[in-house]
């Protein structure tokens, strides 16, 4: 029986790259996308995940369950706290795209740099890393790598400027960390270039997030 995964997006940029990962790892899966590109705008404007944003996301997760989802993939690191609040009210498991990435990073490294283009993504990612470290009884050090101006460059139609600012930010913290975590899934396309530039392991969320979906689907098949 073909499994269904519903991916919930707060913006447009990650849908096509993530589809390629699904085609590689879960080629027989039915993938359905729910995209509300106003959500990330509202989070950025408010500087936090508001109750209204949380309600909209809960509605989308419940809609995903009604669409027949076996697993829901939340693709936005900025709204992870909304996932935590929604899980008790949704009948289908919700995977955070960045949760497995965070587990892998804290299990292997003590000093981790977090690169993001928005404070609303940087802060939740750093909090996620701390929680994952606490879960395994490990103490870690985090370095703040906010690429100021990169988000504005991207939405302003200047992707080269966006990439340059991220690259400079990663290079600026590389000497003080053992590894670098990319807080936004849309930055995954820079993973190889940043590894080469910094000489450090670089962690991105899309591949590990879909692997977590795959593992969960396999466990559901065994339990049924």
From TrEMBL:
<comment type="similarity">
    <text>Belongs to the HyuE racemase family.</text>
</comment>
<dbReference type="Pfam" id="PF01177">
    <property type="entry name" value="Asp_Glu_race"/>
</dbReference>
<dbReference type="InterPro" id="IPR015942">
    <property type="entry name" value="Asp/Glu/hydantoin_racemase"/>
</dbReference>
<protein>
    <submittedName>
        <fullName>Asp/Glu/hydantoin racemase</fullName>
    </submittedName>
</protein>
<dbReference type="GO" id="GO:0047661">
    <property type="term" value="F:amino-acid racemase activity"/>
</dbReference>
<dbReference type="InterPro" id="IPR053714">
    <property type="entry name" value="Iso_Racemase_Enz_sf"/>
</dbReference>
